[in-house]
Amino acid sequence: MVEMDFLRWRLLPLLTILASFLIFYIKTSSKPSNSECSLVAYDRYWITSKRIVTPEGVISGAVEVKGGSIISVVKGEEWHGKVGRGQVIDYGEAVVMPGLIDVHTHLDEPGRTEWEGFSSGTKAAAAGGITTLIDMPLNSFPSTVSEETLRLKVEAAEGKIHVDVGFWGGLVPENAFNASALEGLLNAGVLGLKSFMCPSGINDFPMTNASHIKEGLYVLAKYKRPLLVHAEVQPDSKSYPEVKDGIDDARSYSTYLKTRPPSWEEAAVRELLTVTKDTRTGGPAEGAHLHIVHLSDARSSLDLIKGAKGSGDSITVETCPHYIAFSAEEIQDGDTRFKCSPPIRDATNKEKLWEALTEGHIDMLSSDHSPTLPELKLLDEGNFLRAWGGISSLQFVLPVTWSYGRKYGITLNQLTSWWSERPAKLAGQELKGAIASGNHADIVVWEPDAEFELDDNHPTYHKHPSISAYMGKRLSGKVLATFVRGNLVYREGKHAPAACGVPILAR
Ligand SMILES: *[C@@H]1O[C@H](CO)[C@@H](O)[C@H](O)[C@H]1NC(C)=O
Ligand SMILES: *[C@@H]1O[C@H](CO)[C@@H](O)[C@H](O)[C@H]1NC(C)=O
Ligand SMILES: [Zn+2]
User: Fold this and answer.
1) What pLDDT score does 247 carry?
2) How many Å lie between the centroid of ligand 2 and the Cα of residue 173?
3) How is this protein organized at the quaternary level (predicted)?
4) Ligand in closest contact with the CA of 366
5) Which residues line ligand 2 (CB under 6 A)?
6) Would you call 207 helix, strand, or coil by DSSP?
7) For residue 86, what pLDDT is reported?
8) CA–CA separation, 170 vs 40, rounded Å?
9) Side by side, which strands form the sheet with 503-504?
10) Cβ 240 vs Cβ 303: under 8 Å
11) What is the reported pLDDT for 35?
12) Contact of 168 with 151, CB cutoff 8 Å
């Protein structure tokens, strides 16, 4: 066995060293050059337009970009004299706005790449003007619930992301009472935690109760990072709505709607508020923050949230484009593309959501892009009770919000507040979310009046475009260009050749 020993003790270590050199060499030499990361070659340039959305309002002027950051924002024609300092990209009347930050996306990688994946998902994001997205800890496999599983996520994302991507970690019963496990996950860089108050539909992501949530919130207080909660509580079987497979028509949307009434959201919010009172100034969980994801009930649940905000609880809430674009009445029998939870409710509820959004009671929007395989949407059978719940929307959220919001008179600054400023704050991204000197040059350029048909000819980058609830709609608001950290990553139907987005890890 001398040969074996030689192999084991001499050759193997040598080979390992050689291999690591080789990997190092390949990694460094294959690092994309700037010309592959961006569709423009310059490091220093000006973006000019008559409509630049800044925190001080919409201005005509120019944004100076250098080395991936915004180094100045100037009004009017002041930039003319300084043009020697770089190239000019003039967008005329098109809107120049901070890139969108989607705090709620399911990219499903590793483990369920056939559902979406980092590559197709972030290409769709770039084409939609989203410059940062935060990936949810579930629907990939394994779920992101530990330091180790976060490492798998970050590794899977390497070289595949066209926009910046951050990660939420999962708060689950297994880690909720284990502060060292939670701290491990937070130290490894998740931007906050996410948990469910009802079954998530994913086996390795079990639901949490109020005790788990309280524990999680106390750990998060130290890190000043948020807890995001899917707020629906399934009541005990006595009060469970009577829907029986075979008796009620499973193809009818109203059948599905009955199975998840607003009282589920209300019960969850009520329970959460017993914990969030601790987040008030001087309270035992001061520093912690609770964020309710995808609120659908604009009635009692919203009133409770408003009350808690008034009492000083550190709490925010998001809703999604599908809740403010669609109403239950218009969902056709068997059209399971519209199934999501909580469900899309009636038209009056939708009006109230718009009202809450424009009045500032709902803080922000997120896509909750939650794709799957077309087979699992059961589009042929049209069974709302058995189909996968989740709406696919990532690339379309900007034109959707704009198209459906125009009749409510929404402004460009409101769009920016819902899609960039407040999401940046939630995710702790101080250098993102606004066109301001010193920030990352994360910018979307779009034409609000350009209309298009979302038909099969429209270039769509989701892995499964056909399952999106928006297909077949006519929208206004066409994305012309998307810049991420100064790289022009997308321009009218074309992506930069290399995926140079950055994985965002909290420190
Ligand atoms: C808590 O988590 C740590 C780190 O993941 C692990 O080593 C330890 O076994 C866990 N403790 C319990 C009681 O499960
Ligand atoms: C939550 O579940 C844990 C078990 O994981 C249990 O010890 C605890 O009492 C439960 N809390 C509530 C409020 O039901
Ligand atoms: Zn989700």
Assistant:
1) 61
2) 9
3) Homotetramer.
4) 3
5) 173, 209-212
6) coil
7) 76
8) 38
9) 100-105, 130-135, 164-167, 503-504
10) no
11) 83
12) no
What residues contact 243, with CB distance under 8 A and at least 6 apart?
255, 258, 259, 385
Instruction: Give backbone dihedrals phi and psi of 477, rounded to 5 degrees, phi first.
Output: 115, 90
Question: How far is residue 465's CA from residue 442's CA, in Å, rounded to a whole number?
Answer: 26
If you measure from the C-alpha of residue 87 to the centroid of ligand 3, how many angstroms do you get, rounded to a whole number?
Answer: 41
Cis peptide before 32 (omega within 30 of 0): no
Q: Using H for helix, E for strand and C for coil, what is the string for 358-421?
A: HHCCCCEECCCECCCCHHHHCCCCCCCCCCCCCECCHHHHHHHHHHHHHHHCCCHHHHHHHHHH
Residues near 138 by beta carbon (within 8 Å), at least 6 away in sequence? 106, 144, 170, 194, 200, 202, 204, 205
Provide the residue ranges of all domains of the chain, joining segments of one domain with +: 99-431+451-476
Do the Cβ atoms of 195 and 185 come closer than 8 Å?
no
**Ligand 2 atom closest to Cα of 173?**
5
How confident is the model at residue 478, as a pLDDT?
98
Ligand at shortest distance from the CA of 212: 2
Helix (H, G, I), strand (E, B) or coil at 21: helix
pLDDT of residue 27: 42
Query: In Å, how far from its chain's centre is CA 79?
Result: 35
Distance between Cα 166 and ligand 1 center (Å):
25
Nearest alpha carbon, ligand 2 atom 11: 211
Low-confidence ranges of the chain (pLDDT < 50): 1-4, 6-7, 21-30
Q: How far is CA 124 from the centre of its chain?
A: 12
Residue 451's pLDDT is 97
Tally of CB atoms within 10 A around 203: 9
So what's the pLDDT on residue 236? 75
- Taking the C-alpha atoms of residue 135 and residue 205, their distance in angstroms, rounded to an integer, is 15
* Structure-token match 């799957």, residue found: 372
Residue 110's Cα: distance from chain center in Å? 17
Domain 99-431+451-476 listed as CATH 3.20.20.140: yes
Q: How many CA atoms lie within 13 A of 9 on its CB side?
A: 6
Tokens matching residue 489 = 């990553």
Atom in ligand 2 nearest the alpha carbon of residue 212: 1
412: its two tokens: 């460009």
Is the CB of residue 179 below 6 angstroms from any atom belonging to ligand 1?
no
